[in-house]
Amino acid sequence: xxxxxxxxxxxxxxxxxxxxxxxxxxxxxxxxxxxxxxxxxxxxxxxxxxxxxxxxxxxxxxxxxxxxxxxxxxxxxxxxxxxxxxx
Length: 87
Known about the structure:
Order of helices and strands: HHHH
Oligomer: single chain
Distance between the termini: 34 Å
Number of strands: 0
Shape: elongated
Radius of gyration: 17 Å
Largest sheet: none
C-alpha cells in the first residue's frame, strides 16, 4: 500500500526528473521536447503540497475552523474527475 507521503514524494520527484530530462542537452531533441510538453501541465511541487494541505485539513476534524476556512479559500483546483472539459 502506498502512503500519501510516498505518493507525494513520487510526484514531486517525477517533476524534477522531467525537468532534468528537458534540460539535458546530451539527450535527443525529441525526448527533451516530450519532457517539456509533459511538464506544461504537470503539477508543481507547491501545487502538490497545497493539495496535500487541503486533504489533510478536510480529513482532520480537529483543525481550527479559521485555519480550515483559509486553506479551502486559497486552494485552487488541480484535478478534474474526468479527462473531458466540463463546466
